[in-house]
Design a protein that fits this description.
By secondary structure, the chain is an alpha/beta fold. The chain has eleven helices and ten strands. It has a single domain, classed as P-loop containing nucleotide triphosphate hydrolases (Rossmann fold, 3-Layer(aba) Sandwich). The longest helix is centred in the last third of the chain and has 16 residues. Keywords: Amino-acid transport, ATP-binding, Cell membrane, Membrane, Nucleotide-binding, Transport.
């Protein structure tokens, strides 16, 4: 008789025991995590905890010195970022990284470039982005570099949505934003979750990240020190004290 493990679906993404070095400095030590299709997984931790390095490893921006990264059954560690994107991964990088001299509309179309032949679907997705972010609709012909930080974050999210990737990797979406923009960004992320979008989220704002997530991992000095469902971590006294402001 097959066991539950035999019949459960394989993860969309598996990070299996990766080490990452920057020269002589080791940033990750045997980090492992899994992301199933349709779920949101948050990676939490303070500065220099290794959470952004974990995301960069998935995106091909750094190469692990040990371990494997498997996307839908295919090993991707060490692949070029363009190859990872071609396999269906979209990215919302830390710091937004929009193209400042291009218009809002042009930045969004760059996200859709891998599916550029799907003109009708792209037009529909553009309307969806402009509905979700009315500020972008008002500024669609404006140079992206003239937008506020919050508006640029909206643009980065919209660009990733236009990619229609199987997995969206998001790095610190609340960093440097006012509470109003944080609420606007996470309102859209909650919509994506409800629509079944798979998300790997790196975030310092643990409270809102755990509200969004299904499962979460806590990194400290390059090690996974806690993992579990979001509900389990919210109830964990150590997490409450370190990340949720409990005394």
């Amino acid at each position: 008789m097959p066991t539950l493990a035999d019949t459960s679906p394989s993860p969309l993404l598996t990070i299996d025991g990766i080490d990452v070095h920057y020269g002589a400095v080791q940033a990750l030590y045997g980090v492992s995590l899994v992301v199933h299709a349709g779920e949101v997984v948050s990676v939490l931790g303070g500065n220099a905890s290794g959470k952004s390095t974990t995301l960069k490893s998935v995106l091909g921006l750094v190469t692990p010195t040990r371990g494997r990264i498997v996307l839908d059954g295919r090993e991707i560690q060490g692949r070029a970022p363009a190859d990872v994107i071609d396999l269906g991964v979209a990215s919302v990088p830390e710091g937004r990284r929009v193209f400042p001299e291009m218009s809002v509309h042009e930045n969004l179309l760059l996200g859709a470039y891998p599916r550029r032949k799907e003109k009708a679907a792209i037009a529909e997705d553009l309307n969806e982005v402009f509905t979700a972010f009315p500020r972008l609709a008002e500024r669609r012909r404006q140079a992206a570099g003239t937008l506020s930080g919050g508006e640029q974050q909206m643009l980065a999210l919209g660009r990733a949505w236009l990619r229609r990737g199987r997995l969206i990797c998001i790095d610190e979406p609340s960093m440097g934003l006012s509470p109003i923009f944080v609420d606007a960004v996470y309102e859209v992320l909650f919509r994506w979750k409800a629509a079944g979008q798979t998300i790997l989220l790196v975030e310092q704002n643990a409270r809102i990240a755990l509200e969004l997530a299904d499962n979460a991992y806590v990194l400290q000095h390059g090690h996974v020190v806690l993992q579990g469902t979001a509900a389990e971590l919210i109830a964990n006294p150590a997490v409450q004290k370190a990340y949720l402001g409990a005394s």
